[in-house]
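[agent] plan:
  1. take the single chain provided in the ticket
  2. run structure prediction with default settings
  3. attach structure tokens to the ticket
  4. add a short note for the reviewer (M.T.)
[agent] executing step 1
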Amino acid sequence: GSGIDPYGLHHECKPDWSGDIPTDCDNTWAIAKYLNDPARRRNLGIPPSVQDWKVCRNAQQLNYTKQYPTVLPHVKRALEAGVKVMLYLRSDGCDITHIIGYQKKTPTWLSGNFLRNGPGKFKFGNDEVNHWFDGMAYPQRYHFKNGRMHYSAKFLKSHAYLACEEDERLAVSTFATPRSAQTNFFAPPFFTFHHANAFERDRFLYVDFCLVENPGNFEDLLLQHMRDGSFSSRNPLFRPFLHRIVIPTDVSGDIEAGIDLAEVNFYSKKRSFELPRYNERFTGLPYRFVYGTTILYAAAERRVPGVVKNDVNTGETSIHYKDDAEQLFGEPVFVPSPNGTAEDDGIILVPVMSANRRKKPIFMILDAKSLREICRYVLPVPRIPMGFHAIFVDAAAGDKEN
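[agent] step 2 finished; step 3 output follows
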């Protein structure tokens, strides 16, 4: 079993281990006894298949720093407040399985898996990549059922990962396109990574996407800038904004070049907007609402947006603000309410990290109409990757696919 410390960390039991453990400690014996009580386990909804808490004896006997006599009162207060206590198991290699406590306000109808990916490992042996995009994949699963959330994560053991692990060095090249495969296309200058919805109406194709005026060579996403937090505000031209381009699908031959055939183009520079998501029931159809996150922002902003909701018909925006500028919101995934009728009847699922290493990551659920917070989970891990994209697979849909 693993030891328990006040922050939900652990140390593996190793018979040949010796020396100091550089972390705070608590009285894990009292917590283990308290949480292993059969009646309390039933009350917490812990299945019999989950083993009892076990305390790592060698870790207890070999110089833990006794800064905390016990965190048992904190556990009791959490139970009394209606928050279930987090329990988890962990093995080497960051393969983690957690059973995380829930708050009573969590929508009980939410049932399924929030699947998220992103780079999570950047160093093998003495070799380290320079860029965020070059990290090894660290998929995560947030499973919702009966008002609870279960979290698991594991490195993707790809051919590239295994080769680097075996050689204890970077055995694959960093991201780049070989010169032999490069082709130049000329167009008015802009850059885009991520698209929202697209649909056809009245002989026009409407495409909504995040436009970047000048990304440079993505030097803003070098790990040194990611780690010191400067990436978020160092280059104003790298900030993306929601943009719509309208492409005519039927043009007569006598139209002059450069004439706008539709007066519906917009370029919203009100709020930085990235990782767009929308109600996917409207994929390929006219729609109103698109949700995004503000990753890059102006350094002078006092209140930094976390999630932004755009009405593409009116241009109006709604904002859920960050707790502080150090927070980093991931991709906001829309999940429709099972009994909803309006396009924005549902919730937003969004993981939230922090550039401050002392603050744990959280998982937040927002009301999709108002962007008000419904509830949040504090994850029992010190860090999660900033990540890229995620999907929500409804339990019923997953059963059908299986």
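[agent] step 4 note for reviewer: The CA atoms of residues 169 and 396 lie 43 Å apart.
[agent] ticket updated
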